[in-house]
Amino acid sequence: MKFGDIKNVFRGQTLAEEAEMIRDVAQRYVREETLDPVKALGRYTAFGCLGSFLVGTGGLLILVGLLRLLQNQFHGTTSWIPYLLVTIGGAAALALTALKIQSGPSRRRLAARKDKK
To answer: What DSSP character marks residue 73?
Structure first.
């Protein structure tokens, strides 16, 4: 490579200006490829946690409301039945949730990976 070729590469810029430009490009690239996705993941996680908390609170309130409704129907020696029914209902809801989580997209992805091997 001749000296004239090197001069054309820098296009009249000094070596310090060229190094600063490369540093700026590298910083933008790192920010774009690492920090922005991490911020997006943090937002996704925060909204997921908030949604899970609100759904759990709503489910708990529904179970308490169902318990109060059933307590008005059973009196005396059968007053334990509403607690049993609500406990069974809550356990069934938890079991269905766990089953749905286990059979979700992650299981399909794992099965697809095994098929590729």
So the answer is: T
Contact in structure between 71 and 79 (CB atoms under 8 Å)? yes
| CA–CA distances in Å: residue 79 to residues 65, 83, 86 | 16, 8, 12
For 57-82, give one letter per residue: b (16+ CB within 10 A) or e: eeeeeeeeeebeebeeeeeeeeeeeb
Is the pTM value of this prediction over 0.85? Answer: no
Question: Which value, in Å, is the radius of gyration of the alpha carbons in the chain?
Answer: 31
Give the pair of three-digit tokens for residue 77.
């020696």
Q: What DSSP character marks residue 102?
A: H
**pLDDT of 1 over the 50 cut:** no
